[in-house]
Amino acid sequence: MILWGMVLLFAVMMSVPFLVPHTGLLALFGFLPLLAMERIATLLEKKRVWIYHYSAFVLWNAFTTFWVCNATVGGGIFAILANSLQMSLVFGLFRWSKRRFTGALPYIFLMVTWIAWERFYFDAEISWPWLVLGNSFARTTWAIQWYEATGALGGSLWIWLCNLSVFGMLVSASDGSLFRWNIKAKAASVAGLCILFAAPLIISGAIGNRYRDCMDLSGESLDVVIVQPNIDPYHKFQALTQAQQNGILLQQAEKALKHRKADSTAGPLLLLAPETFTNDITCGDYPRSRTWRGFTSFLKDYPGVNLLFGASSYEYIRSEEAPSYTARNIDGPLWYESHNSALITDGSARTEIYHKSKLVVGVEHTPYPRIFCPIDNMLGGVMGRCVGQEEAGLLNVQAEGRTIPLGCAVCYESVYGEYFTEYVRKGAQAMTIITNDAWWGNTPGYRQHLSYASLRAIETRRAIARCANTGISAIISPEGKILQPTPWWEQAVISSSIPLREDITFYVSHGDITGRICTFLFILLLLALVVRGTTER
Known about the structure:
This protein is α/β, with parallel strands linked by helices. Helix content is 45%, strand content 17%.
């Protein structure tokens, strides 16, 4: 029973930072029960230890991401089981390495293998990096201001170093070796542990002091109005026509913009609407859309106002044969490809479009389309076939001869730290996030998603205007603070200004160095394992 007790304790300790605000530091000790379980099981020569560690990861995933089942039961169960399996395989590889490595080396191998897997997961065809360990601090941002240099995987490294260091001390105490150390060795070990825990917090405090005035608007800034229309996506078209939904949005916008009407001296302003607000956009033929025509007509009365909104957009292709694996047939030689897009337009009808690149597997994206699209066709086309851009792109606010480049992360893209930096490298002076988190209901999902925006703000030091269909919309400061959060499941409007910045953080400039180094060390240690296994036969 003690092994199962440790399994449950691990799952609880690692879930709390994702569910309860300001508890991120608990993750620095969260793996201790799992490591202790593995050691006890090894000493007792238990068989099928994989059952324990796989169960531990299933419980952790279920406690923190059960809400996915609100959108898709099958997809949620698959995400929990498949993600747990990958974690369990990493842990199983660690246990296998203990047959060849001795001392601390298997634990170092575990650490670098885990972080290498997390980095790989960001770019995998089937990707669900929601529980990257560094995300544990998403609501404890005062402790991780140094993410501007390392990104979230720096947090993963800190978690592993702390857990393994404490575990090493506990093992030394349990086998009696700790008491045989001389006083200098004991003092050095205790000092090392204190530095490991305290130094990142001290550094974070020092860095954070530099950003206390990060929302200072004395320099270049952009006025923003965020509209949260609060339209239930499950009954979006059963309850309301698109024209009625447009009316709700424009009515909210009109109240917020009434002081600007026909004011030719007003500066640029960004009006922000949520993800997939409309589904009638044809790429390259925007006037075909009633929504687009209504928006541009509305904006003619508001000089300097640019509207950024989300849309399901379509590209129509004439071809005798399928133009791609992702294309769907309408009739005869007419095909279409779909996108989850962000568009920006103004009263002059100038329009730019960006297609979401990081797509949700199953719902928006069919992985390995050459293999799975034909299977999906036989099943009647149940999986999403959205097509994304090859890389991040910018959308520009234009008014009074000024051009302000913005990045727009569409929903799930805000989970991908290194991808998010591409907007800034291309010149984004501020960031936006448009999303629709209503699919998950009133669960921890939308709160977790909001908190991850704080990590992106710290990594890039860009202010973020976040618009969510049903909440939570907010302004996120470059320090990662969530400002003016809206209520959940209510109509709301935020009026604010955000600073424009051109500085580049170390993480933006150099990318994920932590992940690259750990991947390199993983390859070296894996080769050493293979060589040892070959030569010892």
